[in-house]
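Appendix C reproduces, verbatim, an entry submitted by the partner laboratory led by Prof. M.T., so that reviewers can inspect both the input and the predicted structure.
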Amino acid sequence: MFELRGKLTSTQTLILGIGGVVLIILLWWAMAELLSRQIPVVENFNTELPSSLTQDSLQNSLLRDSILRVDSVKMANATEFRKVYPMIPLPTEVVKSYSRLISKDNLFFNSVRSIWLNLQGYFWAILLAIPIGFLIGLFPIFRGLFSKPVDAMRYLPLTALIGVFIVWFGIYDEMKVAFLAFGILVFLLPTVIQRIDEVSEVYLQTAFTLGANSWQTIKTVYFPAVMSKLIDDIRVLTAVSWTYIIVAEYINKDGGGLGALIYIKRRLQQMPDMFAIILVIVLIGFLQDRIFVYLSKRLFPHRFYKTTLAGNTEVRYGIWMLLAIFSVAIFQKILLPGVGSIATVAMIVAIAAIVFILYGEFRVQSALRREG
């Protein structure tokens, strides 16, 4: 287990994984206890000063001093104390807060809303990054014109640009999706160009020897090679995308979303609820990462398997059908807002796609067991 780049058995991986989670929870618990406070059990004791009492005026300074003086007297005269956790809540308190978040704060709706905005941002970023990246990466004229500006885009202070997006798109969903798409595009576009440069010369020479023209070379060499690696880069951007969508949802909190919910809980100083929402975001990000891993294995199986797996074709058909439905839903929202005429057709296609994926996955797993 201490060998450089050594391998763990499945049992060791499971045990160490569980142990790691337990260790993190124990450290969390220890930090919460370390930063806890004892406050007197008396009426009107202020554990935190009101956020409105800033130090930018003499009147506020006097009020702050008055509150702190009263609290110090109450602390000195108190005979009974209770422990509070103003900085880091206990794990048990975070778990208890989920029932309240689900029943009173509509946690499920806010999660679905943030996921939907997140997926839309990904869609537009990928839709723009791939064709623009291929133009700049493959054709010298476009590379000469735009490669330096594209590289410079990485240094844009994106959170500072949110005011610009508010001016351009307003404060509603259009702004949030546009801001998120731009935030992903800034990182994804240079990556597409880099992946094009990394395509092995051997494959290009082979295509040339076989007489492939420029379009055939792009279709059979560049596109598969770039996309098989680009999906891993998209996975890495999961954390970035959730950072930006939470920032965007701070604007117009009435629209809902996990970012808006965190903002409200922060204003109310409800730390257990804030930690609970953050854990939900971590879970969604982890599941999103696993989905990208699955898509990578099924859409580009040559990277993971030496032979063609039976059933992988059916899985790919199902995945492409689901992606087509998602694309139609986004374009319908823009071109025909409020029209739900294709909902029934979309549901039928989605069910068929899931059947394709399940059937194909059954065949894939059977093939893997036979090879194993």
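Residues 10-87 form one domain. Additional entries are available on request from the coordinating office.
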